[in-house]
Amino acid sequence: MPASAHSQTGFEMAATASPNSSGSQSPQTQRRELELQRKRARDRKSQQAMRDRTKWTIHTLGEQVAVLSTALDQRTRQLANAESKLAFAETENTQLRTQNAALQLSLMGRNGEGSDADGPPPSSVVSSAAHTVGSGPGGFGFGSLPTPVWELCPRNTPPTCLADHIFQSFVDGSRTGGALTPSSSNEGRSRSISVGAGKANLRPSLSCLIDQKSHSDDDDIHAVVADVLKTYREIEGLPEQVAIFSSISMLLKWMVLLDQQSWGLLPNWLRPTHNQIRTPHAAWIDRVPWPQAREYLIKHPEIALDDWAAVYSAGLKVNWPYDPSTVLLGASVNALGTSGITINPVFEEHLRQLRHWTVGDGFRRRFPDLARIIDLDCGPLPATIECPPIQQMSPTSSISLPHPSPK
């Protein structure tokens, strides 16, 4: 056979075999594909198992977080309850210490001087045990049943200033704004007391002085006093603000109620003198702390409030020897609920002793005679006692008395 024919035959055989080779896979290739499929199946199972484990772990951790959160909330409530009890106990302890200190201060101020050491001479102020008779001006005269001294109100002239107009209008309106209440000492007489005044707390409430938004129906007297006090920009010290607010509030309550209880809360030196009851005078004189000074002002009506107010307010001091913030006790939670800010009993006893009230140099230069009378009314300053630790006002409860713009 020729070589060319042999070559052609081999080419044809290769061409015939090539379609069979391209249409089928070798065993080695099939094994590789099978192994790849098995590997993919194993990977899918592993990934599914990993996802299941992750879900289970997240679920378990979520349950643990819920349990721990519940336990934390319970512990937090227990801690808050314990802290509340501790704060209440500390407040009680502080109040007991301050009351004890107030008692010591009271005994020190009265030791060797009698129970009226901080008051005026007995002849100048109407005694709480005395009774006057008659129905004439001021309750003096003869021929009628006796009138209790706490029902003898000062004889005031028509208002001479804005403050007098506010206070006198409030007192008159409060007395006639409610139902008639018969007098305990005279069945034939009766007086009108407003419902708001009758419900008012006889102790000074500082809520109106500190926070204007805390005004309630029972705080009408305190709101009126606070509004007037805030117009006196010269009174800057917290002890002086609280002292004046407290004394005027007690005086105004007695003028509204005219009862024995409110009269008994007045310091001896703030009770009206005989001349205040008998002689017509400006109402602002009744708010002057010193009884002999009130007598002098009644005898000298030419001294007007405009002459008095600026130098008096700028120099008035109550000589509180401790931190000014300690005149108040902060609000606390007690068994009956939340109690408001109150006057420190030590400071309350301090301001009830007239010797602590003094005037400044400007007042002394303007009214030298009155300054000498005030010094005689006050007497020497007593020695102070060590003030116990006192719960101070928190920074967020600090007092800021806004002053209205001049009109």
TrEMBL record:
Residues 183-194 have a biased composition (Low complexity). Residues 1-55, 109-132, 177-196, 387-407 are annotated as: Disordered. InterPro entries: DUF3425 (IPR021833). It holds the Pfam family DUF3425. Residues 30-55 have a biased composition (Basic and acidic residues). Residues 1-10, 17-29, 391-400 have a biased composition (Polar residues). This is BZIP domain-containing protein. It comes from Clonostachys solani.
